[in-house]
Amino acid sequence: MKGSLIARVEAVPGVAQVEGQILRNGVYLLGRNGEALGAVNLPGSATNYHSGHAINGLPGLVVLAGRAPANADEVAIDPKAAAEGDTGSATRSPS
Q: Is residue 55 in a domain?
C-alpha cells in the first residue's frame, strides 16, 4: 500500500524484509457441534499468515502439513484441531 507504514519501513536502507502482522487473542476454532477444537486450555489466538522470520533469524510461522493460506477465505489451524476435524467456524470471545 502506498503511504503505508510497511512501505515506509521497506524504503529504509538496509531493510531486507517487512511483513505486517495482525494478532487477536481470544479466538477459538469451533467444530460443527459448537465445541472448541485444538488446544482449548491455552489462550486462543489468531494471526495473519506471513513468511517473515522471527527477530532472531529463526523461521517464523511454519506450515507442518499442507500449504499456507493463499486467500482471504482460508486459514491454517493447529495440528490438534486438524486431527479433531469437523471444523465449522471461528469465533472470538467478547471484548
A: yes
- To the question of pTM greater than 0.70 for the whole model, the response is no
Alpha carbon of 63 to those of 9, 12, 32, 66: distances in Å?
Answer: 27, 30, 24, 7
pLDDT at 82 (0 to 100): 74
Angstrom distance (rounded) from CA 32 to CA 81: 12
CA distance 33 to 41: 18
- d(C-alpha 22, C-alpha 81), whole Å: 21
58 in any annotated domain: yes
Q: What is the mean pLDDT of the chain?
A: 77
Over the stretch 31-76, which tens digit does the pLDDT of each residue have?
Answer: 777 777 776 666 777 888 887 887 787 887 788 888 888 888 887 8
Q: Is residue 11 part of a domain?
A: no
Nearest alpha carbon to residue 22 among 81, 65, 67, 69: 69
- When divided into structural domains, the chain yields a total of 1
Cell numbers for 58, please give them.
Answer: 529463526
